[in-house]
Amino acid sequence: MSSKTLTVAARLLRRCFHKPSRVFQVDPVRLYYASPQVVTGSAVRTVDLRSDTLTKPGAAMRQAMAEAEVGDDVLGEDPTVNELQKFAADMFGMEAALYVPTGTMSNLIAVMVHCRERGDEMIVGDLSHIHIYEQGGSAQLAGVHSATVTTLGDGTFDLDQLIFKIRHGYPDPHYPRSRLVCVENTHNIQGGRVLPLSFLQELRSVADKFGLAVHMDGARVMNAAVALGVQPSVILQHCHSVSVCLSKGLGAPVGTMLGGSKDFIQRAVRARKALGGGMRQLGVLAAAGKIALSDMIGRLEEDHRNARSFAQGLLQCDPPLYQVDLTTVETNIVRFRLRDSQMSPAEFCERMAGVDEEEVKALGQGVQVLMFPHVGDSVRAVWHLDISEEDTQLAILKAQFVAQQHKRNSVRAA
């Protein structure tokens, strides 16, 4: 940390022992996926760590979108889409790929293609995005039953438990037929954890033995590839299909690539149309996707570095309000807990989003840091291309300010 930053930090800490004055109006941070009100004013800097879905396309991406050659993609005639799909398939090491509007639709399409009969079953982690955050679409729209295995801390699950959950008695009329197992890489709820290649290899062996397909919800699989220092195809060789989001850390405004065999993608095209995902002059969006896959993967390392710096900064705060395991900070997501149960994660996020006059005087500006209360009484913060190293240092200083202020208020209450 530079001497200038240390000076700012010292000013901040001195101000912590003065009673705060008027607070700028800020709506409380609500639950996951909610939108707190952003504080406005020339003296306020916002560091938005709620999600990497918040990225905005840069100048090069916008220019590519404006100049994109287009056609009717439902007829297979959009040249920019076709180029993107070929590029993605080659990168994934798969035969074909399909542009899909959203990751949720892409995962649902994969389930529909792999589980072709209503009443088929997929096996998923109990903390997976498909199981928790996609509205049960596999049951609601595809008629596919879900069985769950226990998600472990690193995002994996026990393969013996998986084998136990497979319906070995089919076609016994009492049971659904096990068709599919889904994994998530990186794992969102478990804090951006990267699935070990050894786990994926062993999982594929089990799947092949029992006739299951393997689908990867790889919304952030490029983060996993960067963290492991391998090409995406090294990870995806163990999967039959994958869903890769373009609109998170890769910075595209919308879109997900679904990869698999040629037969799988042919069936996926039909499922996409049935779900309303067939679009026309799609090249305008596909052009952004081409930039995302060709130019934006390498820079994910910057997000990983900033996330780790923030986690280390939390551990160095005095008083020690924050609890974080650095070994779990593998990519761009940091999950941490508060050591003092008198402050809930929601209250902490509200305080981080608030700005008072004492803070403005100490830092020369207010710093509004937006984060989400998360599962397990934790707080989640996510880095992306719109969060700089300077933003990260300001978020650390704000966390230090909140820790000092909480200590002072606790002493007064005692």
UniProtKB/TrEMBL annotation:
Q: Name one GO molecular function term.
A: L-allo-threonine aldolase activity
Q: Where is the Aromatic amino acid beta-eliminating lyase/threonine aldolase domain?
A: 48-333
Q: Could you tell me the Gene Ontology terms of the biological process aspect for this record?
A: glycine biosynthetic process; L-threonine catabolic process
SUPFAM superfamilies from the UniProt entry:
PLP-dependent transferases (SSF53383)
Assigned keywords, A-Z: Lyase, Pyridoxal phosphate
Where N6-(pyridoxal phosphate)lysine occurs, residue numbers? K248
The question of whether Lyase is a record keyword is answered with yes
Query: Lyase as a keyword?
Result: yes
GO CC annotations on file: cytosol
Q: Which prosthetic group or cofactor does it need?
A: pyridoxal 5'-phosphate
User: Can you tell me which family this protein belongs to?
Assistant: Belongs to the threonine aldolase family.
Q: What is this protein called?
A: Putative low-specificity L-threonine aldolase 2
Species source reads: Labeo rohita (Indian major carp)
